[in-house]
Amino acid sequence: MEPSVEVVFKTVRDKEFLRIAEKVLSQKRISPEEALYLYESDQLTALGLLAEYINRQKNDRLAYFIVNVQINPTNVCMYQCDFCAFGVKPSDERAYEMSMEEMLSKVESLVRMGGREVHIVGGIPSHWDYNRYVEIVREVKRRFPEVTVKAWTAVEIHHMSKISGKSYEEVLSELKEAGLDALPGGGAEIFSERVRRIIAPYKASAREYLEVHRTAHRLGIPTNATMLYGHVETLRERVEHMQKLRELQDETGGFQVFIPLAYWPSGTRLGGERTSSVDDLKTIAVSRIFLDNFPHIKAYWVTLGEKLAQIALNFGADDLDGTIQEERIVHSAGTDSAYGHSVMHLVNLIRKAGKVPAQRDTFYNVIKLYDR
Ligand code: V47
Ligand code: SF4
Description:
Helix 3 crosses helix 11, helix 4 crosses helix 12 (about 275-290) and helix 7 crosses helix 10. It contains 16 helices and eleven strands.
């Protein structure tokens, strides 16, 4: 045990917490019950230190960011999940659909500022056909072969499979051939059937989400994983969610990063309250400890806010996402974060959090270190 870790643990009286901490520090995998114990404990500081200790072993003092743009081609969505304020019906006055030229001009401005990643995800309109999804990827890659295309969530891939009659493997292979490089992690929400029935009864199930990711990994397409927390789920259901991801990662090794997404309730049918900062930090820390086979944990500045994201970088997270430029999904639900950030803003956020900023590509290769 490092001296600083030892000092903090001297203040902890909870024997079970200490037993689990010893296990973590000696690189042993913890069980779901033990993860739940950490979640429910009131040892916030010690939990953060433990998670950060593990993170330093994986990522040293680096905190990653990417120069990227998020493109949400349309907000029209047939699924109408109750936690989502972004997806609207076609008749809604907020409904929009971007033209291909509009999307390409966003990619062009990204490329002009040296950006590398286009993250494309949106609503799922009933009038879109399968080719539309493939053509967006193909056109972006044809015009800008230097960018990495991280596009379409597992929910969108499942939908494409349904409307085209093709298997996940066929859909993903065609998208890969068109230029798809990676899948984002959206659409996971919470895997529990009980919760899904309440918050998102119509879209792809947990089983389908995991099967899309399994297929992507088999085809050599790396993917990310998310968890939307802070609505109607229990802590046990969060741990079960992470357990399913850990199992799949054991099987395939294809996940790059886990992204806990704090729920924003404004303008949603589900309503509710915002998560507390203690809950946000515990979720980052527990995920870092429990998901021992995930190389990265993302502190998504859009949902956490800049200041909490800085603390999360000292509670086990090692990535902030990126410049983004124009986030719409969580902004529809009331987040007070900026819509995007400059490179220097993210570099300063990371430096002031005490970490070394590392500009990365989609696959976590370091492009530039800002180590003065
Ligand atoms: O799946 C929807 C979430 C996700 C709300 O893979 C909400 O690198 C909070 O997955 N409050 C899409 N969250 C965004 C996403 C993502 C973002 C950044 C990086 C990556 C990555 C993935 O947004 C949805 C849903 O879970 N979301 N509504 C809300 N009210
Ligand atoms: Fe549509 Fe995705 Fe929003 Fe659900 S979360 S309503 S699938 S955009």
